[in-house]
Amino acid sequence: MIVGSLLIPRFSLIAALGDRREMLAEPAVLAPDPGAEQLIGETSGAAEAYGVRPGMVLSEALARCPRLSLIPPDPGRAELLWERSLQALEGIGAEVEPARPGEVFFAIGGLLGLWGLEPEGVLNKAARSIDSPARAGAGPTRFCAYAAASTSRVRRRRPLVISAALARSFLQPLEIGLLRNRLPGPRQAALRLVETLERLGVATLGDLAGLPRVAVADRFGGLGLRAHDLACGSDHPLRPRRPHEELLAALGLPEAAYGTQLDRALELLVERLVADPRRRGRTIRSLRLEAQLAGGGGWQAKVPMRSATAAPERLLLALGPKLAQLPAPASTLALRALELGPEGAAQLSLADERGDRRREQLSEATRQARAAAGRDALLRVVEVEVDSRIPERRAMLVPHSS
Amino acid sequence: MNAPPPSGFALYRPRAVAVGARDGTPITVGDRRLRVEAIREEWLIEDRWWTREVLRRHYFELVLEGGRCLTVFHDLAGGGWFEQRAF
């Protein structure tokens, strides 16, 4: 399998800057999210020249560069712009697996012949389909493709394509810092791991791959093993998203609204979303509340529903407490349906079929758990070689289908 | 909350464990160096000898001080000691 990758460096920073892109030439960073840990986000090239790095504690970043501009993050705008790029990629037939805004992976195999006989042709077409200039690369795994794209230049005529045979030797000389954005779990843990490895003199992916796996497991645990896997050129298979219709209701607030004005705006948004004809009677399983803050920047909160519903009063009950967390007065409020459920409400049964009801409840619980915690939140055990003498070959965890 | 394990994740994967051994026989286990009270059973597994990833393991079913039972193996091909909870 050949995995393609497109990267747009500093995508969230560029989205937050809006039409002030000239600030990229100055030391500028994304300010910490309101109410979150005081860690800075993406950084401009000029800020990096001062030694300021993404994920750094704000006070340390300011100590290194006192004239650093803090740009309020606008996750809603970044998601919106990125969603347009993803839809453009889906428009050329790519099954995309989005990572954070500015990073996307897709399988190239199915597009060969359609957009060229070589992976380079497909990558060029994909890069042209999105609005912003992107770095493109391909490799046998997601991480290898990411590394290829990271090391290639924007607008390079021939994107870098790494074959499976060359993957390990390609990764070997690359710096260990490439792992920062590719390790699962909390970002802070990934940053700590990479920092520790650098302090121990493990400067390149080849250095890490050369360490005994047992020693890595002993010193760094599961995260270390994952890093070791990536450095050795192995990765999980791609899990593309299902293309979906965008259901969004947005409302510009005439003046910075707060309190009951906001409550009323939320009611209006819910009514608009429920009345959207594109919903075609389907229920809503999870939503995202987004706001443009009057003082600049944006805010968003994800709201998974306990059960899929289209009842405005139940949607309001779930959204109300989130709205109370809004960190500052908002100038725009938007409500986006992230996942839709089946048509209509749950049909009650006259007969007392407990087995059926229990199965339905379990299916619903499965869908809720997925909506709240992601597709890998619920797995089931499948026996593979029950009688194998090698215990780890006997059973595997696979996604639970409801 | 810990992230869930990824799908396609094999169960019963061996975990590295510190084992003190004499002549290839475990005498202490773990960072706390728990003493091995008894070896209930031991056996050898050889597999995939027809590939480059030969698998050779010397398994021991141990009773540790305090009464806990534990299965460990010595990886004779790649080196190192591991515990495994599938027996």
Q: How would the blueprint of this fold be written?
A:
The complex is a heterodimer of chains A (402) and B (87).
Chain A: E1 3-7, H1 11-17, E2 28-30, H2 45-49, H3 58-64, E3 69-71, H4 75-91, E4 96-98, E5 103-107, H5 119-129, E6 135-139, H6 142-151, E7 160-161, H7 167-171, H8 187-199, H9 205-209, H10 213-231, E8 247-257, H11 260-275, E9 282-293, E10 298-309, H12 312-323, E11 330-343, H13 354-373, E12 379-383, E13 395-399
Parallel strand pairs in A: 2-3, 6-7
Antiparallel strand pairs in A: 1-5, 1-6, 4-5, 8-11, 9-10, 9-11, 12-13
Helix pairs in contact in A: 1-4, 11-12
Chain B: E1 9-10, E2 15-16, E3 19-22, E4 25-29, E5 34-47, E6 55-64, E7 69-75, E8 81-83
Antiparallel strand pairs in B: 2-8, 3-4, 4-5, 5-6, 6-7, 7-8
Keywords for this entry:
heterodimer; A: 402 residues; alpha+beta; Alpha-Beta Plaits; Dna Ligase, domain 1; five-stranded mixed beta sheet; four-stranded antiparallel beta sheet; 13 helices; 13 strands; 37% helix; globular; B: 87 residues; mainly beta; seven-stranded antiparallel beta sheet
Please describe what this structure looks like:
- The complex is a heterodimer of chains A (402) and B (87).
- By secondary structure, chain A is an alpha+beta fold.
- Chain A has three domains: 1-179, 2-Layer Sandwich (Alpha-Beta Plaits), CATH 3.30.70; 180-231; 247-346, Dna Ligase, domain 1 (2-Layer Sandwich).
- Helices cover 37% and strands 21% of the residues of chain A.
- Chain A has helices spanning 11-17, 45-49, 58-64, 75-91, 119-129, 142-151, 167-171, 187-199, 205-209, 213-231, 260-275, 312-323, 354-373, and strands spanning 3-7, 28-30, 69-71, 96-98, 103-107, 135-139, 160-161, 247-257, 282-293, 298-309, 330-343, 379-383, 395-399.
- Chain A has a five-stranded mixed β-sheet, with helices on both faces. In chain A, strands 8-11-9-10 form a four-stranded antiparallel β-sheet, with helices on both faces.
- Chain A is globular and about 60 Å long.
- Chain B is mainly β and 87 residues long.
- Chain B has one domain.
- Chain B contains no helices and eight strands.
- In chain B, strands 2-8-7-6-5-4-3 form a seven-stranded antiparallel β-sheet, with no helix packed on it.
- The interface between A and B is medium-sized, with 27 and 26 residues.
- Strand 13 of chain A pairs antiparallel with strand 1 (9-10) of chain B.
